[in-house]
Design goal:
Blueprint lengths: L7 H21 L2 H8 L3 H8 L2 H25 L6 H12 L6 H10 L5 H22 L7 H16 L4 H8 L3
Helix pairs in contact: 1-2, 1-4, 1-6, 4-5, 4-6, 4-7, 7-8
Length: 175
């Protein structure tokens, strides 16, 4: 089931659940909690999504698609930006606890064993992002896309531990 096949109500349930997963994690935001928050019946949920694993996969795919659109917009709609400017924008998008990447980052640690198909969507995004970063880095002297992705992950860990975002942004100014 693609996002285009979801009814408006089902899409609303997915979007609300993304917020719940982001706030409470995948384990604490169980089906009963989601049903309570979205005010839908259990039968309706399972008619639309079949299982929690399939539901989490749909949520991850939606987040992945949103992030891809955002990154592609940064890369291709800002033609006057340098590669460093575009990488900075990509970094700022990802190193933010309020960004769609926060949930994908959280998923790395919480869903691999429980929801392998959903986890695969996260891995696909990360591989795609590394390729996009690599293309931008190829415009520079010394490319290293994996290093850039690890920088994003490190910033997320620091933000989760209470680090000030502005301090992290200042540390990025490596030009």
């Amino acid at each position: 089931m693609s996002n285009r096949e979801l009814s408006p109500r089902a899409l609303q349930v997915v979007q609300t659940s993304i917020q719940l997963f982001n706030s409470y994690g995948f384990h604490r935001a169980g089906i009963d909690f989601i049903l309570l928050q979205t005010k839908i019946a259990k039968m309706t949920f399972y008619n639309n999504f079949q299982s929690k694993e399939r539901f989490v996969e749909i949520c991850m795919t939606l987040q992945k698609d949103r992030l891809k659109q955002d990154v592609l917009a940064m890369i291709y709609s800002c033609r006057h930006y340098t590669a460093v400017d575009k990488l900075t924008e990509i970094y700022l998008l990802h190193a933010d606890l309020n960004s769609p990447y926060h949930l994908l980052f959280k998923a790395i640690f919480e869903i691999e064993k429980l929801y392998p198909q959903a986890y695969q969507a996260v891995i696909e995004y990360r591989e795609w992002l590394v390729d996009e970063i690599l293309q931008l880095l190829m415009e520079m002297e010394k490319p290293d896309a994996d290093m850039f992705l690890f920088m994003i992950d490190g910033a997320m860990v620091q933000l989760l531990s209470g680090e000030d975002r502005e301090r992290l942004v200042e540390a990025l100014r490596f030009r």
